[in-house]
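task queued by scheduler; priority normal; single chain, no ligands, no partner chains; default sampling; output format set to structure tokens
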Amino acid sequence: MNVHLIDGTYELFRHFFAVPPAADLNGQEIGAVRGVLHSVLSMVERGATHIGVATDHVVESFRNDLYHGYKTSEGVPPELLSQFPILEEALEAMGVVVWPMVYYEADDALASAAAQAALDDRVRQVIICTPDKDLSQCVVDTRVVQLDRRRDVLRDEAGVVAKFGVKPESIPDYLAVVGDSADGFPGVVGWGPKSASLALLQYLHLEGIPKDFRNWHPSIRSAQRLAESLFGSWSEALLFRTLATLRLDVPVFETVDELLWKGPRPSFEGYCNRMRSPELLSRAKLAAESKSARSMNPNEKCVLRARTCVGLSKRTDSLGKAIDESSCHRCQYSSYSDYPAGSI
């Protein structure tokens, strides 16, 4: 099995600024929520079976107690913030496991879930669905990877090194000196991506960097200036690394079996009606039927009364693109000619 872990906060922000606004029957803005639901459902339709979504129920976290300049909800449109609880409830009604974070951040939940899922020998690959550079620290070889769904870019450990110039385990150190404007900490003066990657490629972590610049690797230019800046603000650098280091102890699940999508709950119909999106309900039900059919005995799939499988039909994804036109959405066969002898 593959485990898909989705950054719900990123998805909600992305859809808020990408799709037109829309109000539900009560006048509540739900355009971004509806977009995320369509997006997650499309993953199920394409074969995702075990899914977990992490959200920032509130933007502030324990990191705000560590550093006063850490990101807050200030400046975030209220029309966006108000959609977080709606998204969390709607996803749960759709049958998806959701981790709404209050003390921790969504990234911490994703990191914890990835680490725990990777321990299960049944899991072939853990796919963290977010372009957030913070999550690159969780990548392990080709087993735990990062997927930018918008750009369709899959990044394994070699991909992290290619992008940042450092290994995944050095990402917190890298962000500590380079800074992360999205999270609100500035990094170390004089350090940039190039100097950080050259230093950490050699020394892996900040503690491995020699205090005497004359002992630095010759590939690192301006060693004296960089050393003076780093060790002159050493406590700040360590604090920034703490902020950038994702927690692996967030309670997420006991076993990956809890992440198995089994179809929408009865309450999902109410959410779809409220959002004026009956197509979400029909798609979710159809996906559940398809999943159920695939788990049946091959000779029990699709009761055929003609030479065309009743499951064959043209479907579209959330963007209107045709998918699965030549395959049965209720079983694994591509056409009636592929069925076992005697089944048609």
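post-processing summary
- The CA atoms of residues 189 and 229 lie 6 Å apart.
- Confidence is low (pLDDT under 50) at residues 297-344.
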